[in-house]
Specification:
With 253 residues, the protein is α/β, with parallel strands linked by helices. The chain has a single domain, classed as Purple Acid Phosphatase, chain A, domain 2, CATH 3.60.21.10. It has eight helices and twelve strands. The strands form two sheets. The chain has a six-stranded mixed β-sheet, with helices on one face. The chain has a six-stranded mixed β-sheet with strand order 5-4-3-2-11-12. Strand 6 and strand 7 form a beta hairpin. Helix 1 runs parallel beside helix 2.
């Protein structure tokens, strides 16, 4: 289990992309404030980027810009950890080394604020969405990724655009309930990892709830996405847990 003795911050679903410079500006301001607050650890729980087609695209000006922002925070002493999302699961060790971040498994336990906390992107507990889970298994397979990364960058960009269009069309045909997390899957994950707190993103449905377990209670914090006119970060410190509203973040907070 990772241990954070000081303050930890958590974000998810930033969906950074060149077409939305406002999001990048917000991210830069947030990182500046995170450094100023002397936060010990920052956890990015997936979908940092709108999409990532491979570490060999690191030379792209926008990708290099985000990498430089992360490296700046890391060089000031904040440990940065990353769990892959459904948009950027191809982020690898080359990007991690350049950005100064540590890649984590799809589920990770961390001791923060004295509470065993389970971290994940959140898509693995959306078990009612069977077509998505089948798609996830396909694209997370080593063979699919090897084949995809073997194609030229322009072809990968085209394929990603096609996948995004198909995904958007598929989502229009699904109910909100199907795309949301499964309560039994959440309880099972907390129990399996011996945690009493869960933090995740993915669903774009920010919230907080108490969860009854067989041997006690736990809590779930769901992080907001950043690209719908809102955005947040969760902070855990000696003072407790607080949600930071980043919807109009300018770095002056």
């Amino acid at each position: 289990m990772l241990t954070v003795a000081g303050t930890a911050r958590f974000v998810s679903d930033l969906h950074l992309r060149a077409e939305r410079p406002d999001l990048t500006e917000r991210f830069a301001a947030f990182l500046t404030d995170t450094a100023a607050a002397k936060v010990e650890a920052l956890f990015i729980l997936g979908d940092l980027f709108e999409y990532w087609i491979g570490d060999d695209d690191l030379a792209d000006p926008f990708n290099a810009q985000v990498c430089k922002l992360l490296r700046g925070l890391a060089d000031q002493g904040t440990r940065i950890f990353f769990i892959a999302g459904n948009r950027d699961f191809l982020i690898g060790e080359t990007f991690a080394a350049a950005a100064g971040i540590t890649l984590l498994a799809e589920t990770e336990t961390v001791g923060a604020g004295g509470t065993p906390t389970l971290l994940m992107h959140g898509d693995t507990v959306c078990t009612d969405d069977i077509p998505y889970q089948e798609f996830r298994r396909m694209v997370r397979s080593k063979q699919w990724q090897a084949d995809f990364l073997a194609t030229p960058l322009p072809e990968r960009r085209t394929e990603v655009e096609n996948l995004r269009r198909r995904s958007a069309a598929a989502m229009r045909g699904k109910t909100v309930e199907i795309m949301d997390t499964n309560a039994a899957a959440i309880r099972a994950a907390l129990t399996a990892h011996g945690c009493t707190r869960l933090i995740h993103g993915h669903t774009h449905r920010p919230g907080h709830e108490d969860i009854a377990l067989a041997d006690g209670t736990a809590e779930r914090w769901v992080l907001s996405d950043w690209d719908t006119g809102r955005g947040d970060a969760l902070e855990i410190s000696a003072a407790g847990v607080r949600r930071i509203d980043l919807s109009a973040y300018s770095g002056s907070h």
